[in-house]
């Protein structure tokens, strides 16, 4: 299943009100050799949100961050509900 | 299905060689009111890759970009294969 069908499925569940949303997903798959490298995802996430804020008005209270880790895979999901353009 | 199970499923398909990978997915769901706002995703994508390059060495030839659009949903996927840490 590709990304589009994944997000379309998600969209149907949250389709209550037609809001503008931006989702940023970071998936980091480590190989054994780099297992010891420092975890830069949290810092990277903060910088990526800062870049996004240059393009759209981001209300910090409308930013939802989810983080999951399993085996050598770490997934960071940032969901941003955007204000209606006036 | 959550993001983790989605990426774990993807991982199984590409599990040939244990490489370090970073995937950045941007999903932009427009509401009707903002349909006319300019498309900033391509420019945003370039800046996000630039930020990622501050954290990990990104070989431009190892960056795969996929873009899909359906209804008011646009998904941009950036797959980066990272060099082994020496």
TrEMBL record, chains A, B:
Entry-linked InterPro entries: MinE (IPR005527), MinE_sf (IPR036707)
Source organism of this protein record: Inhella gelatinilytica
Annotated HAMAP family: MinE
Function, in words: Prevents the cell division inhibition by proteins MinC and MinD at internal division sites while permitting inhibition at polar sites. This ensures cell division at the proper site by restricting the formation of a division septum at the midpoint of the long axis of the cell.
Family as reported in the entry's similarity comment: Belongs to the MinE family.
Pfam families: MinE
Organism placement in taxonomy: Bacteria, Pseudomonadati, Pseudomonadota, Betaproteobacteria, Burkholderiales
Keyword NADP attributed: no
Protein name per its UniProtKB record: Cell division topological specificity factor
Gene3D superfamilies: Cell division topological specificity factor MinE
GO terms, molecular function: identical protein binding
Entry annotated with the keyword Cell cycle: yes
Keywords: Cell cycle, Cell division
GO-annotated biological processes: cell division; regulation of division septum assembly
